[in-house]
Structure prediction request, 239 residues.
Amino acid sequence: MNKRNDSLYISQLSKSFVGLILLLSLYACSGGSGAPTEAREAAPDVDDTPVALNVTYSGPDPRDQAVRDFKLFFWDEVVEEVIGCANCHMQGGQGTVKFVRNDDINMAYDAALTLVNLADPDASTIVTRVANGHNCWSVDATICRDTLTDFITQWANGVAASESTTINFVAPADQMPTGAIVLPDDSNLFENTVYPLLATNCVGCHSDTAPVQVRQTPLFAHSNVDTAYEEAKTKIDLA
Prediction:
């Protein structure tokens, strides 16, 4: 091999070596060194279910007592934000049965009847669904189950549920206590016993005829015996 061929061979070998170095550098930068790499976390899913806040009723009046009981004992409870039924089951919501609609309580009542068993609240469809995890507002599904069962039970009992704690007091008939000593209604006895003593000894101060400067109350020596008797009652102790 002559010198010209040797130079050409060495030049080609140098280019190959440089290319190999560049290739190894690119491989190391791309993570091919074998070092562990961290996977980028996926963005969490965002629940875009609308939240119904401060739900108020703005529809027609309940058509009868049954619907009034439904609203008082069930509807008013499940529309609360913590329960959250209004998020889906109000008119315009994603839920199929609109049992908490706020534009017509009568239609809400009719819809709710398809989900509840008033004779056996614990067997209600809405109770079993929540007990199985359907939108339970607590980490403990039994709490949601028991809460809804209580709402439906109160609804089923209706007015009786609120009246059961009502006590109606009836005042007893007036009667004279046995052995009690009371003053007579009229002044006849007073006039013939006590009044003469008062009219004689107390008229100077405890009478309507006494000078204003010295007059004192009660006026049990009043010139009118009936008035004197009423005034004297405040000073008579029968005990």
Observations:
- Residues 188-235 form one domain.
- Residues 3-29 form the longest helix (27 residues).
